[in-house]
Amino acid sequence: MDRRSFLLGTSGLAVSQLLIGCGGKNQSQLNVQLLKGSIPGQVVNQFHKNLQQKVQLKFAPIEQIQDLFQQLQSWQHSPKASDQEGWRRYIPWSQGKKVAIADLVTLGDYWLKAAIEQKLIQPLEVEQVKQWSVLDQKWQKLVQRDDLGNLNPQGKVWGAPYRWGSTVIVYNREKFEKLDWRPRDWNDLWRDELQQRISLLNQPREVIGLVLKKLGKSYNTENLDQIPELQTELQKLNQQVKFYSSNNYLEPLIIGDTWLAVGWSSDIVPLLGRYPQLTVVIPQSGTAIWADLWVRPTGVGKASLPYQWIDFCWQPNIAKQISLLTKSNSPISTNIVASDIQEPLQNLLLTNPQIFQKSEFLLPLSLSATKQYESLFSKLKA
């Protein structure tokens, strides 16, 4: 299980490709490669109906964000004629063949810095996005970067967030029936009853980050040496952990080998309907947030259709559909109420403004800080 590869039944684009409209010589096209399950098929149909002109829409769902990132790389590093194998370079019809680059691609916010640094994407023309001013400043700041991919309030806009989720606590309610408490925040992970009963993500930023959050610090702390109590708290937490995994952390919870897990909301959401004993909570002191963004690959020409699609995704009624049908959160304010959502999902999809303000994106760290996180995490598990 990976937070970027889950499939949401029939509500998301699950076929190999969704093609709408007949392809004519002079017909406009919109070619989108997106994370599978992150956009409902009916939303694409609504967009097509709302367009004034005849357009061919090609939406190709891809399994994982990593695959999409590698696709961006392949478009920029396609072999030149001189690199082709031997005699092939002299065949007239094999020369000058253009690679079809998508107009828009899904990318996770965590990959944004690398995509900018490697010149895989180009800035958005914000003046073409009518709904940009509606977007909360927290989201605007996330995608405003300099040419090295670092946050810069005066930087260009490199992506358009269309849904988000968070790192959450999920626990087996049956295991807590004899206890007089239920998990509510990060500090509950240190309780004696949970010794050797927790599974954590195998991710230094997530694990060290939740300890930093427990200590009232930021997920994006640059110098860990300045927090003397960090190592002690990490060692205590490690005694509570049965194992670390980013792929198989939920199965032991389902069969009862562990009582509690920390994971990504998009991994957990599909399981809640099948396993009613599981309960999800967003830690009260704040958590890590991830976002899916629309980005423009380098080399794709200027066109208005991609910006019409971004604007469409940011219309409140459409944003609400994306949120409810893909069981995620929206960066646009919607009028979602408790009655719209199944009870097990209400903790996730009804955003608590206080918790959201305390929550953070995992932002780029310096190379030295990244090595510090990785080194500390390796020592912890050893």
TrEMBL record:
Q: Where is the signal peptide?
A: none
Keyword annotations from UniProtKB, A to Z: Coiled coil, Periplasm, Signal, Transport
Principal localisation? periplasm
List the GO terms this entry assigns under cellular component, sorted alphabetically: periplasmic space
SUPFAM superfamilies, A to Z? Periplasmic binding protein-like II
Q: Which residues form a coiled coil?
A: 220-247
Query: Mind telling me what this protein is named?
Result: Spermidine/putrescine-binding periplasmic protein
- Organism for this UniProt entry: Cylindrospermum stagnale PCC 7417
